[in-house]
């Protein structure tokens, strides 16, 4: 579903992606781990066309991710993103936040979208918060709203960029629980995370990236339990 082939990306003289080649199959959960500044967010942002890339190819369901091509609108609606900071509109209700994309970007019928929004809020355990405003919610609840908002676009895949890193520890579990359920339901997910327990239990594959290259990748349990590369071993020693 998602293919990256020798992707290079620089910011000025700083080459942050130095030839990334990876693929994500339909229904697969792939976790990306690695030190701060290694290029993890940049990979997600390139897949979602929030950033351009300089060299190589990225495609989603065979459609090239090219910020200048007309097809980019389609790619953007097919791949949702959930950020570390939830980026909800504080002055709109929770339900309004969830239905924003389908209503105004995809221009879907209002009644249908509102229905879907309520169903999704129930799915993330927040049915009773539909009319609340984001600042009234805990960080964990806001992140679950952000996940419902991502799902409201009926995407083919969701990219998560450290979705629990900004949360108080006691709120992390609920968000990971929602993500785990999504994975069980067959959603295609790419998750940048420092939650090694989640990666081990939920991911099909893990990519370890350092300095803009994939140093090691493999089945989640194999990579996390028996990392082969010294840099992976060193990283895991420090985070586990
Ligand atoms: P990670 O998510 O792994 O922490 P990032 O992908 O955010 O890493 O960043 C990789 C490198 O790219 C870092 O050195 C960062 O400073 C740099 N970088 C990221 N975004 C920008 C930007 N918009 N402009 C300039 N440099 C950037
Ligand atoms: Mg990042």
Automatic annotation (TrEMBL):
InterPro entries: AAA+_ATPase, ABC_ATPase_HisP-typ, ABC_transporter-like_ATP-bd, ABC_transporter-like_CS, MetN_ABC_transporter-like, P-loop_NTPase. One of its GO terms (molecular function) is ATP binding. It holds the Pfam family ABC_tran. SUPFAM superfamilies: P-loop containing nucleoside triphosphate hydrolases. Keywords: ATP-binding, Nucleotide-binding, Transport. It comes from the Bacteria. Residues 2-236 form the ABC transporter domain. Involved in beta-(1-->2)glucan export. Transmembrane domains (TMD) form a pore in the inner membrane and the ATP-binding domain (NBD) is responsible for energy generation. Belongs to the ABC transporter superfamily. This is Amino acid ABC transporter ATP-binding protein. It comes from Bradyrhizobium campsiandrae. The lineage of its organism: Bacteria, Pseudomonadati, Pseudomonadota, Alphaproteobacteria, Hyphomicrobiales.
């Amino acid at each position: 579903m998602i293919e990256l082939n020798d992707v290079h990306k620089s910011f000025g003289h700083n080459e942050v992606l130095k030839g990334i080649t990876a693929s994500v199959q339909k229904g697969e959960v792939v976790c990306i781990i690695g030190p701060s500044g290694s290029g993890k967010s940049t990979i997600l942002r390139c897949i979602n066309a929030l950033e351009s890339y300089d060299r190589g190819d990225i495609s989603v369901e065979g459609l090239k991710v090219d910020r200048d091509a007309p097809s980019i609108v389609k790619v953007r609606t097919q791949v949702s993103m959930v950020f570390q900071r939830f980026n909800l509109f504080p002055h709109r209700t929770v339900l309004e936040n969830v239905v924003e994309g389908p209503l105004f970007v995809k221009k879907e019928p209002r009644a249908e979208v509102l229905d879907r929004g309520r169903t999704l809020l129930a799915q993330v355990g927040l049915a009773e918060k539909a009319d609340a405003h984001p600042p009234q919610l805990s960080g964990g609840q806001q992140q679950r709203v952000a996940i419902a908002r991502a799902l409201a676009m009926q995407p083919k895949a969701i990219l998560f960029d450290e979705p629990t890193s900004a949360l108080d520890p006691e709120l992390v579990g609920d968000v990971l629980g929602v993500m785990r359920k999504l994975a069980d339901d067959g959603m295609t997910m790419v998750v940048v995370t420092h939650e090694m327990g989640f990666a081990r239990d939920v991911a099909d594959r893990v990519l370890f990236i350092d300095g803009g290259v994939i140093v090691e990748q493999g089945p989640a349990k194999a990579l996390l339990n028996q990392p082969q590369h010294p840099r992976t071993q060193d990283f895991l020693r420090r985070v586990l």
